[in-house]
Design a protein that fits this description.
With 232 residues, the chain is mainly alpha-helical. The protein contains nine helices and no strands. Helix 2 packs antiparallel against helix 6, helix 3 runs antiparallel to helix 5 and helix 6 packs across helix 8. The radius of gyration is 21 Å and the shape is globular. The N terminus is likely disordered.
Length: 232
């Protein structure tokens, strides 16, 4: 009987060790989200390049700047060295892979016209969380955390639009940068309430994505600043 109890105790100890091993730490969550957001934004960039009829090299370039532009700017501003994609070559691998898969896939299957908007909305949400988490880990204050969320989520798309000769979304009336900044504030608030890494990240990603898609569907936007023509 004693041996049986000991065996059960040992079994439960092993189960606990396995559970602890498979439980993702905040760092693991951040890394997984960052890679996933990188893939989504790379696809977004590749689709934008395809609409401009670029060759395969141009598709890869636009995909890359879209995927890492915001994170690179964030790391430089926070003085994080080396920059994340230089320190970890897996980012470039997934960017090139996502760009090439998109390039060849769309040669045979035309993606819906809304595919770029959906991909961009989801990538915006994911990168808002990543930017906020990186800033928190760096010891930044609340205002900087929110700002880094916005920068991480929007700068890559802004570079993409400029290279594709389009007015950047961040400069239009659409709720875009506002959604990213709001996501940073929401993530910060959920973390301060003690919500776990996955819970806070998931809730923020859903909220920002829905806000962005709702703004697109119902043409929601911030008030415009207009000055009348003095010559009239």
């Amino acid at each position: 009987m004693t041996d049986l109890i000991w065996l059960h105790g040992e079994s439960w100890a092993q189960v606990a060790q396995v559970a602890e091993a498979v439980t993702a730490s905040p760092g693991d969550v951040l890394y997984a989200l960052d890679l996933f957001g990188t893939i989504v934004f790379a696809i977004s960039g590749a689709l934008a390049a395809g609409r401009r009829h670029m060759d395969v090299f141009g598709v890869v370039v636009i995909a890359a700047v879209t995927a890492v532009g915001g994170g690179t700017t964030r790391d430089l501003l926070l003085d994080r060295h080396p920059v994340f994609w230089i320190d970890d070559g897996l980012y470039l691998v997934v960017i090139v892979g996502a760009a090439l898969v998109t390039f060849f896939y769309t040669r045979y299957v035309r993606p819906p016209d809304s595919a770029l908007l959906y991909a961009d909305a989801f990538g915006l949400a994911v990168f808002a969380v990543v930017g906020a988490r990186v800033a928190l880990d760096h010891g930044a204050g609340p205002a900087i955390v929110v700002l880094m969320a916005g920068i991480t989520a929007t700068v890559g798309g802004m570079i993409r639009d400029v290279l594709c000769d389009e007015t950047p979304l961040i400069l239009r009336r659409e709720i875009y940068a506002t959604a990213a900044l709001g996501g940073g504030a929401l993530y910060l608030g959920l973390q301060s309430l003690g919500l776990g890494a996955w819970g806070a990240a998931s809730a923020t990603i859903v909220a920002v994505t829905l806000l962005r898609l709702a703004a697109l569907k119902w043409t929601l936007h911030l008030p415009s600043f207009r000055i009348g023509d003095s010559s009239r």
